[in-house]
Amino acid sequence: MMKKITLPYGHEQRTIEIPEANLAWIEGPRHAVPIPDIAAVVRHAIRNPIGSPTLAELVARHGKRTLILVDDSTRTTPQKIVLPILLDELNAAGVPDSEISGMIALGTHRWMSETEIAARVGEPVLRRISVTNMSHKPEDFVDLGVSPLGIPIQLSRRYLETPITIAVGNIIPHMYAGWAGGAKMVQPGVSSAITTGRTHLIAGPRVYEILGNVDNEVRKEMENIAIKSGLKFIVNVALDASGTVAGVVAGDVVKAHRAGIEIARPIYTVSVPERPDIVVASSHPADRDLWQGFKPVNNCGMIVKDGGTLILLIPAPEGIAPDHTLLVDFGTMPGDMVMDLVTEGKVHDEVAAATYLAFDRTRRRLNIALVSDGIPDIEARKIGITATTNFDEALAAALARHGKHARIGVITAGADIMANFTGKESERYAEVCSESHHDV
Question: What is the pTM for the complete model shown?
């Protein structure tokens, strides 16, 4: 008997079949209790900030000029819902639309087109304020010295020179920060590639330890930078499995963020009683390219038994890593060699190196097979993995490798999950997470 399972695949869906005798479990983000009036919840959060002054109090202290940091289309924050309400609340606090602008906090991601920005924030918002991409020009960053870990702090001049800054994002488990949201809109959101590269190099080899752990040195680094740079306010949402708002927090970059994690944690924590030989996962919502797909590669790869196989369904219309082609150039180079090149100053894209280190840690443990219409096998093999457009072909190869009785787990949306194991599996998972990694 075959079990039919429908998984998200970009803006579409794919239905796959898995032998019921092999199926260990099906897991993924949870659905939350529906909120009848999402706008009212957003408005209530903004009017009742956690650990920070209200918008009116911020305006009284700092003036009216306001910059809203907006995440790009690689994230699922419902900006079209949140931004109009935030603008109304700023108006009520005495800030006219003419004093407000928005900036896409790109980090090292590519610029968004005008069409993409309009789709992201909505035409009603663009009729009220200007929303533009963050500049990547070196002269448009300001040097603020070094962080406690010795990382150069270079932030957007426009961000630093605006009296009131508000970051709007979402809270999900994240392999580099423990959890997304909060200070992550500053680092890496409005940081230079140098700052982001150095921070990611600390996180890259340690993603197994960092994912879902808010008390880690990278998160502390990000929060120190956000506080030092003067981020005034956050509005963060937690979304459920359907992408519907499950909760909203606003206020202090640390205190409000922690409250948001408590909403998000039960949604994104998957309970897994068994580490299977094979995990089949949708990359959703990290679908654009494999660069985003490295999140589900690592999040879901942690769950697979050593020597097992991860089959990742990812459309990847933009290929492997269009913004960070150096990652492909590294090929199958051992992570230690990449770190040696970084140390010798021979790597111009340290963000690519950091992501490669995270990917390499999982690739050394597993076989990774993509089911993708955007990445051909010849390209995938350059980085030591395989690709096919046919799921049945990928599953047959995995079963041939691990035997006809191999156990199979399925993750419905792999980009934003973290695993919680029980019993002996918990002990083994702890061993996987504490395995030696490359020191920076």
Answer: 0.90
